[in-house]
């Protein structure tokens, strides 16, 4: 196992999570603003997550070929659900009284969204991002399969040459990565909850 | 297209069937184990505070590692796949069974006790029905995961739809990838919708409106 594999793995996870946020949060806002679009958006992201990861990566590979782009696109599609759903739920759970007050102060819909509703929804949106990140760490293992490298390659190699210590070293690193992400992001989440709670 | 089916039709049907069997058998085994342990665990919530975090750490192990390690220990047999998939499928059901049972309000159990039910009767007639929505969503999660992980069975050469995806990817044959990926996707979505439907039917009418 090399440091290179770990950085590759982290790179794929980071880039895909950034893209997931860039795509997922606006989609969640759309679902919140337009009830008609809501059902379609939520259905599509749910179906996307239901599709087996390897099947999804295989189909994307037909379009983008083998490599990191395929893995990152796959991770992006796969992690959309928690981010979109939490953005939508976070926004729609904002106390109606608060929304009314902001409207009463003469804020436009967009202004109120940016300055009132989104800040209140931030902790829940971040929970979605945390779930997406931890899932992405696990799914990125399949990256090796479509030529993206990362920790998956050492696990695959271990299985092919039937070497238990190779498999274990890959797995332990992977688990440590997932747990560290989870713990650190849970701490940030707690901070955000205190910082952004309306009380 | 017609050409494809005359070439691979039989193999595809066998693969879908194998995949389906892997999922059904593993999830059935997991369901039984998870229900028993979930019920036991709900009697000892103290243990759950230790066991549940342990389980969620365990769940971060990717399924591929599981199949890989068991393959080294047990060799290439369908049993290897079934065991790996079952172990994997236990956790979501177990967790949801436990949470569902623990969240049953004390007043219902008390009322049941007042009616003279024994603790076994309370478990089966009161707690399980009330925990059903939660158990079913655990079951759905497990099943969808299992369809996904069963693709990996092909990695150790044991058939299923993964066969098509693997050989398609390694020989750069897009038709094969599609032939494996589309049925796998449909199977996952189909199971998910089916279990959702059953969940709606199974939930007692009286509490249905509380559950979305």
Fraction of helical residues of chain A: over 70%
CATH class group of chain A: Mainly Alpha
Domains of chain A, number: 1
Largest sheet of chain A: none
Which structural class should the secondary elements of chain A be placed in? mainly alpha
CATH top level label of chain B: Mainly Alpha
Mean pLDDT of chain B: 84
Question: What's the number of extended β-strand segments of chain B?
Answer: 0
Any idea what the CATH architecture of chain A is? Orthogonal Bundle
What percent strand of chain B? under 5%
> What's the SSE pattern of chain A?
HHHHHHHH
User: Any idea what the CATH architecture of chain B is?
Assistant: Orthogonal Bundle
Task: Tell me the domain tally of chain B.
Answer: 1
**CATH-assigned fold name of chain A:** MetI-like fold
The helix-strand sequence of chain B is: HHHHHHHHH
* Shape call of chain A: elongated
Span between termini of chain B = 42 Å
Query: What is the gyration radius of chain A calculated from CA atoms?
Result: 19 Å
Q: Please name the fourth-level CATH homologous superfamily of chain A.
A: MetI-like
Could you describe the 3D structure shown?
- The complex is a heterodimer of chains A (199) and B (212).
- Chain A has 199 residues and is mainly alpha-helical.
- Chain A has a single domain (3-196), classed as MetI-like fold (Orthogonal Bundle), CATH 1.10.3720.
- Chain A has eight helices and no strands.
- The mean pLDDT of chain A is 88.
- By secondary structure, chain B is an all-alpha fold.
- Chain B has a single domain, classed as MetI-like fold (Orthogonal Bundle), CATH 1.10.3720.
- Helices cover 83% and strands 0% of the residues of chain B.
- Chain B has nine helices and no strands.
- In chain B, helix 7 runs antiparallel to helix 8 (174-202).
- The longest helix of chain B is centred in the first third of the chain and has 42 residues, at 2-43.
- The mean pLDDT of chain B is 84.
- The chains are: A mainly alpha (199), B mainly alpha (212).
- Chain A binds chain B through residues 47, 50-56, 58-59, 61-62, 134, 137-138, 141-142, 145-146, 152, 155-156, 158-159, 162, 164, 167, 170-171, 174-175, 178-179, and chain B through 57, 60-62, 64-65, 68-69, 71-72, 144, 147-148, 151-152, 155-156, 161-162, 165, 168-169, 174, 177-178, 180-182, 184-185, 188-189, 192.
């Amino acid at each position: 196992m090399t440091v290179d594999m770990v950085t590759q793995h982290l790179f794929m996870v980071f880039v895909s999570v950034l893209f997931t946020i860039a795509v997922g949060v606006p989609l969640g806002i759309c679902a919140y603003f337009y009830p008609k679009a809501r059902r379609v958006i939520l259905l599509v992201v749910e179906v996307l997550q239901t599709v087996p990861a390897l099947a999804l990566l295989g189909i994307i590979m037909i379009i983008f070929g083998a490599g990191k782009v395929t893995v990152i696109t796959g991770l992006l599609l796969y992690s959309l659900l928690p981010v979109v759903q939490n953005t939508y739920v976070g926004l729609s759970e904002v106390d109606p009284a608060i929304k009314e007050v902001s409207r009463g102060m003469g804020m436009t819909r967009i202004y109120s969204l940016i300055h009132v509703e989104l800040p209140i929804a931030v902790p829940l949106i971040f929970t979605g991002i945390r779930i997406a990140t931890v899932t992405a760490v696990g799914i990125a293992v399949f990256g090796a399969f479509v030529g993206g490298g990362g920790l998956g390659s050492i696990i695959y190699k271990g299985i092919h040459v039937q070497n238990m210590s190779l498999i274990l070293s890959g797995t332990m690193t992977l688990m440590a990565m997932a747990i560290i992400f989870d713990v650190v992001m849970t701490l940030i989440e707690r901070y955000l909850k205190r910082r952004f709670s309306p009380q | 297209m017609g050409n494809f089916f005359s070439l691979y039709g039989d193999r595809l049907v066998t693969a879908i069937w194998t995949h389906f069997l892997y999922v059904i058998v593993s999830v059935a085994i997991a369901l039984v184990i998870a229900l028993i342990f979930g019920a036991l665990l709900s009697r000892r919530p103290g243990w759950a505070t230790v066991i549940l975090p342990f389980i969620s750490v365990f769940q971060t192990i990717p399924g591929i590692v599981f199949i890989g390690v068991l393959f080294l220990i047990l060799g290439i047999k369908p049993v290897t796949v079934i065991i790996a998939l079952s172990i994997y499928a236990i956790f979501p059901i177990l967790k949801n069974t436990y949470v569902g049972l623990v969240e049953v309000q004390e007043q219902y159990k008390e009322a049941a006790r007042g009616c003279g039910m024994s603790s076994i009767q309370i478990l089966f007639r009161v707690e399980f029905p009330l925990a059903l929505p939660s158990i079913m969503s655990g079951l759905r999660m497990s099943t969808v995961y299992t369809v996904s992980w069963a693709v990996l069975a092909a990695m150790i050469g044991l058939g299923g739809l993964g066969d098509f995806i693997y050989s398609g990817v390694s020989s750069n044959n897009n038709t094969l990838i599609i032939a494996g990926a589309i049925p796998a996707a449909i199977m996952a979505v189909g199971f998910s919708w089916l279990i959702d439907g059953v969940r709606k039917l199974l939930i007692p009418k009286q509490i249905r409106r509380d559950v979305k």
